Amino acid sequence: MNWIANVVPPRIRSFLSRRETPENLWVKCPDSGEMVFHKDLEANLFVVPGSGYHFKMGAKARFASMFDGGTWEEIPLRETLADPLKFRDAKRYSDKIKEARANTGLQDSVLVGYGQLEGENITMAVHDFGFIAGSLGMAAGEAVVTGLETAVQRRTPFVLFAASGGARMQEGMFSLMQMPRTVVAVQRLRAAKLPYIVVLTDPTTGGVTASYAMLGDVHIAEPGALIGFAGQRVIEQTVREKLPDGFQRAEYLRDHGMVDLVVPRKEMRATVARLCAVLMRVPAKEAA
Predict the structure, then answer these.
(1) What is the DSSP string of 259-277?
(2) Residue 138 above 60 pLDDT?
(3) Which CATH fold would you assign to the domain 56-279?
């Protein structure tokens, strides 16, 4: 025991031991162990410069990186029941919703926006994994459906950035019903002959993978993204076989035909813009 612990009053002791710097000032790369300054990581679209590891990206940050000038129109969403089953385990589901809203600044796990991408109108929906693991509940399903309907009404491509742990168990059957609802909405977009581009980010699993996330005209994945329905351990226990290395990762799925492209985040904007232009048959701009 030193003299601070013995003599200095607790209130002053706590002041002396208080950290002068924020806890998240530096971020450690899970792959390489490299320490990256948080501001540098944010400026690099949350990609570690040395290893290329892609951290999860929030919905608003994703919009800012994709829309021209970082500006967009947020599409208003119809209200849904916040807690249809009055679900409770260790904590009330309604309390979890309030906590997630306070932490993310979002009403639910999917945000829908309308704006321009390289001068062309586009409708976009983004899952935010920070909101209860980007899970699919009534509000998230309503957001995806509204985004698809907006694309049809405004005659734009629809781009979805998926990141989800799957259906939201606290909403039971109400959550599962969002799977057929969103599939029907995708069919309406297809009937209108408008492009649907899906970007699969880490992780995209469960009911989201089993419905609208795998119905795109083009499927892009970010490097190293985990993509699948059931987890690897569950599959191994079911088939009683050891799965290959990299199973369910973006590169493996591309090599086996489930994903069309694996695109680094820095190239995502240009890639999506080019695909939208081709699918909408927009004439190439003349060189100056």
Answers:
(1) -SEE--HHHHHHHHHHHHH
(2) yes
(3) 2-enoyl-CoA Hydratase; Chain A, domain 1 (3.90.226)
